[in-house]
């Protein structure tokens, strides 16, 4: 029978599941690690342990005691059983009785960590705490642990959990990351998380919005200038690149960057060098670049508004953030957190959503994503005359019932420049028409292009080939 070694108030989250060849071996290991883990620990035989993982994300980690003698086939079967129950569940191998080759084989089979008897308690605690902390945060809807230094990003959907796992995997690298997503999806927060989880976390995080600064000033903001380099340059000024030394430089809306400056960013990425305006000395840059855009850069490259070589240098590690409407299960989690924060700041603690109001939030498509959700809830907190927010406190009714607006929101952003909305709508319409033409011609590109009145190259771009 499974035995609980330690209990906490969080009965919905199991900190550590210890599995062994038999219940006695599992209980012995659980007793050994009980002082290292803050939270409930359950011990069971390996045969029964996977059945205890009932809800994906609700178990912090598995500590697996391997069979003796070591049997790789049995180990792989156990790992497969835990993966089937919860694909993201980390399994830590208690490798006391294994030699180095067996431990390496276990890690290659899918174990997340290997802990040996001689491992220092503080190191073992740190390893387990890191694994369990990430899982506990996600079980409560938070993608990164509070003590990680990362910003508070909420989401329990598989899409956002995969984003979080990817961020954790690539944070330790200095490779360039390109974050893709609509306005309001949290691209800068993800960039901050990459920085906080990286070896550069003690260095500065410097952000610059390439769309918010006039073209004539953007180079100066990025690279700085020397005294006397132009009229009015009365002193030397360092740029954002230099300010981000040994840290992270976040280039937001890089799709808006003018072509001449793109060449200098390419040089920065390839050679890690740059020049101040009016400078005579080339400077080295020790900085990691993270970029973001809400534009389709492949389409921008095809239209010759964005350099192809820069696109490939930027997109070494792309991260695509889903729109809020694509993860409706996260809407209530995020809305509750926003309401709690706003209500407390406005002296209305205890304010809550009615069931109908919550349903309305989930049904709405949120073309402005989380930023629009925050604005809508702030308005409702101000206007609500009771302790419960009702649908009538929202401005969503006309927007939900307007079919033209709802249809446009599905294919294009309704905030930001009109040109961005028109381009996104045109791109979506082009893809749909191209797909229909290819379907009608049974994949004959020449006939489909003739039907649409475009070249075959244009057709290929329309369907993303």
Q: Cα-atom Rg, whole angstroms?
A: 27 Å
Quaternary state of this entry equals: single chain
State mean pLDDT (0 to 100 scale). Answer: 84
- The spatial strand order of the largest sheet comes to 1-3-2-4-5-6
Backbone structural class: alpha/beta
Query: How many β-strand runs?
Result: 17
Please summarize the sheet with the most strands. Answer: 6 strands, mixed
Shape: globular
Q: What proportion strand?
A: 5-15%
Query: Which stretches are low in confidence, meaning pLDDT under 50 for 5 or more residues running?
Result: 1-11, 397-401
Helicity range of the residues? 40-55%
Please tally the helical runs, counting DSSP H or I stretches of 4 or more residues: 20
Distance between the termini: 57 Å
């Amino acid at each position: 029978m499974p035995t609980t070694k330690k209990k906490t108030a969080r009965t919905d989250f199991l900190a550590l599941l210890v599995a062994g060849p038999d219940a006695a071996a599992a209980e012995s290991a659980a007793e050994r690690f009980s002082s290292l883990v803050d939270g409930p620990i359950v011990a069971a035989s390996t045969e029964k342990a996977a059945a205890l993982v009932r809800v994906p994300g609700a178990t912090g980690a598995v500590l697996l005691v391997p069979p003796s003698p070591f049997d790789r086939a049995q180990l792989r079967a156990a790992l497969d059983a835990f993966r089937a129950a919860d694909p993201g569940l980390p399994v830590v191998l208690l490798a006391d009785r294994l030699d180095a080759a067996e431990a390496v084989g276990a890690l290659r089979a899918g174990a997340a960590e290997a802990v040996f008897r001689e491992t220092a308690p503080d190191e073992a605690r740190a390893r387990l705490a890191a694994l369990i902390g990430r899982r506990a945060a996600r079980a409560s809807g938070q993608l990164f642990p509070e003590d990680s230094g990362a910003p508070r990003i909420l989401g329990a959907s598989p899409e956002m959990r995969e984003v979080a796992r990817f961020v954790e995997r690539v944070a330790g690298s200095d490779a360039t990351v390109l974050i893709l997503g609509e306005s309001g999806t949290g691209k800068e927060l993800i960039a901050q998380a990459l920085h906080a989880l990286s070896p550069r976390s003690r260095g500065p995080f410097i952000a610059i919005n390439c769309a918010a600064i006039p073209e004539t000033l953007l180079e100066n903001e990025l690279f700085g200038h020397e005294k006397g380099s132009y009229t009015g340059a009365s002193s030397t000024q360092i740029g954002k690149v230099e300010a981000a030394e040994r840290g992270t430089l976040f280039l937001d809306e890089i799709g808006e960057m003018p072509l001449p400056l793109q060449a200098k960013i390419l040089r920065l990425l390839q050679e890690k060098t740059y020049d101040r305006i009016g400078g005579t000395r080339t400077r080295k840059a020790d900085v990691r670049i993270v970029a973001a855009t809400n534009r389709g850069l492949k389409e921008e490259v095809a239209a010759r508004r964005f350099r192809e070589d820069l696109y490939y240098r930027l997109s070494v590690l792309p991260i695509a953030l889903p729109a809020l409407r694509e993860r409706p299960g996260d809407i209530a989690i995020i809305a509750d957190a926003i309401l709690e924060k706003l209500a407390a700041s406005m002296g209305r603690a205890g304010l809550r959503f009615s069931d109908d109001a919550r349903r309305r939030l989930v049904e709405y498509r949120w073309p402005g994503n989380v930023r629009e959700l925050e604005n809508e809830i702030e308005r409702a907190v101000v206007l609500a005359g009771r302790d419960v927010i009702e649908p009538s406190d929202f401005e969503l009714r006309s927007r939900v019932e307007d079919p033209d607006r709802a249809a446009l929101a599905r294919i294009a952003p309704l905030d930001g420049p009109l040109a961005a909305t028109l381009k996104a709508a045109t791109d979506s319409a082009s893809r749909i028409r191209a797909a229909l033409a290819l379907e009608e011609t049974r994949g004959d590109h020449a006939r489909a292009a003739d039907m649409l009145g475009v070249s075959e190259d244009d057709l290929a771009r329309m369907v993303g080939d």
